[in-house]
Design brief:
Elements: E1 9-12, H1 18-29, E2 34-38, H2 42-54, E3 59-63, H3 69-82, E4 86-91, H4 107-135, E5 138-143, H5 147-150, H6 156-176, E6 181-188, H7 201-209, H8 219-230, E7 241-244
Parallel strand pairs: 1-2, 1-4, 2-3, 4-5, 5-6, 6-7
Helix pairs in contact: 1-2, 1-8, 3-4, 4-6
């Protein structure tokens, strides 16, 4: 893999596997030194870093809870020390997403999602914003979800938090645009990754029936969208909600 000239440091949260790993690999291939953040999977994170460096990229793994203020402060300080100022922030970290019908829904069911999709982005943006302000340049990409348009039953807590995340991104885009910082949301559809290994094949087939392109997505589809928004070619895209779902939310 040929790696172009060095580009700004990218922090990708929840990057040891799944969509995060694909995004980290793509940004590294594009020349960004990548901080691979993860919460538990030491082996998976180390393996990803090894693959990136073997291909000629630059990456380091950082274990941190991005819903914890001290964890975020320590993460960004370590990245600055090892790789340099942060220019790209990809907000991908997530937690369990169980279906909870409304008659069983309680606040903790919603709060667990809010921690990942509202609290964590707020903590991380505040931690890296000085770097972006000093550079007069920055890219913030939220990994959202097309559930805010599809509204699947039993997912009201998840949908509420993802909707709030989208609201953050849109307001931040207006506030930070004058600083040279763009903020966008990539909204995948159902893209099977490791945590979906036990999914019912019939459920996946039923979902694909509603996708105009006739297939489910793959992690590289999302990574490509993120890479575009981070690149010079995407530099005038700000405040966008970009569904990566084969057209399943066309109305």
């Amino acid at each position: 893999m040929s790696v172009p000239e060095r580009r700004p440091v990218a922090v990708v949260t929840g990057a040891s596997r799944g969509l995060g790993a694909a995004i980290a690999s793509r940004l590294a291939a594009d020349g960004h030194p990548v901080a691979v953040n993860y919460a538990r999977s030491d082996e998976a994170a180390a393996s990803l870093v090894q693959r990136i460096t073997a291909a000629g990229g630059t990456a380091r793994a950082y274990r941190a809870d991005v819903t914890d203020p001290d964890g975020v402060t320590g993460l960004v300080a370590d990245v600055r020390r090892d790789l340099g100022p942060v220019g790209v922030l990809v907000l991908n970290a997530t937690g369990p997403q169980p279906k909870v019908p409304v008659d069983e829904l309680d606040w903790p069911d919603v709060a667990q999602h809010v921690d990942f999709f509202v609290k964590s982005p707020v903590l991380l943006l505040r931690a890296v914003l000085d770097d972006m302000r000093a550079a007069g340049w920055g890219r913030v990409v939220h990994i959202g979800s097309d559930v805010v348009a599809r509204l699947p039953l039993g997912n009201s807590g998840y949908v509420a938090a993802k909707s709030a995340q989208l609201g953050l991104a849109r307001v931040w885009a207006k506030e930070l645009g004058p600083l040279g910082v763009t903020v966008n949301t990539v909204a995948p559809g159902w893209i099977p990754v490791e945590r979906h290994r036990d999914v019912d094949p019939a459920a996946l087939a039923a979902y694909v029936e509603g996708v105009p392109m006739g297939r489910s997505g793959v992690p590289d589809d999302v990574a490509g969208a993120v890479a575009y928004l981070v690149s010079a070619a995407g530099g005038f895209v700000n405040g966008a909600w970009l569904p990566v779902n084969g057209g399943s939310t066309i109305s």
